[in-house]
Amino acid sequence: MRIVNRCLWMGILLSLLIACGRGEADKTPQKQIAIIVSTLNNPWFVFLAETAREEAESRGYVARIFDSQNNTSLESDHFENAVALGYDAILLNATDSDGSVANARKAMEAGIPVFCMDRELNNPDAATSQIVSDSYSGCVELGGLFVRSLEKKGKYVELLGLVGDNNTWNRSKGFHHVVDHFPEIKMVAQQSADFDRNKAMEVLESILQAHPDVDAVFCGNDAMAMGAYQALVAAGKDKQIQVFGFDGSEDAVSSIQSGGLAATVMQFPQKIAETAVAFSGEYFEGKTSFPPKTLVDVELVTPANVSIYSSYGKE
Asked: Model-level pTM?
């Protein structure tokens, strides 16, 4: 009887140990996602990064944001850390369309997928997939509004973003694709303000000294548009000179509502971030083929329709 009882207890103990071992084996580690962003000194990128982090965490992943401070070398350090720490995916908002290619390749060679958000790399093979706004088409539409607002004649200034960012040139090319067909609309100055509000204010103040009679300013993002508008207010020219932006930031939407900026183009960073996280999840589940580039639609925001928009999206 004692032998039977002893065997019974040993059997129960063995079953418990096996079940315990199975339980430990079933506890797969949480996937980790590194969100490497060009700069957190711009509210648009803060929104993009935070949205990506929240979406990743809602899916049960561990997510951490890294700020490259518009420095490709610092971005390289972030990539090296992400590889060394064994992150499972990287969501990249690149500092430079060319300069960031080598950084992305480091991760890809280490078997870590790279999903680009908003800023496109010039080498599509350097990333698993790229999710970007349709900047070119958005600025084609903005260019049409610009021409109509100036009644097909006048002088204007263009403030460019970072010269190493594809968005800078896609927006400029889309705009010029329309505006350059109207010979009586003349660009008197084109200068980079690095997507920065304070720099845009300083640059436009300097340009106005040489060209005080301009009719409009086209800016490659809303931060520059708001800086340009500040310069016009300081010069007492905000009622005479129209300012056009791109992004759909809270400041820009509010300014259009109050009669400040003439228009902007609304991007949808939430959709960009959510798509990048969703692609990461599909990769974790075994998917290996992704579209090289996904274009996210943008929308023109004017005084006529601004009531349906809020910062970086619709009401």
From this structure: 0.86
